[in-house]
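Researcher: Please translate sequence to structure tokens.
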Amino acid sequence: MTIKEKITSKEVHKKLSREAIDEGVVAFINSVNMQSGSAGSIDLYSLMKAYLLDEKKRDEINGIVKEMI
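Model: Translation complete:
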């Protein structure tokens, strides 16, 4: 078994691949028993890629979330 390197929030946009994000979305979908991650008005794949790979979009999303809670 290999130990994977942990990625910090400051380097996430540099080190995560789109494929790794897709795998994470699939794991989430399976863990909450959802049928799909991109159906109807739900698109977790695009959301997670935008959030994790684009620092500006992440700041915007965080701002929206803070306003809502």
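Researcher: Any highlights?
Model: The chain has four helices and two strands.
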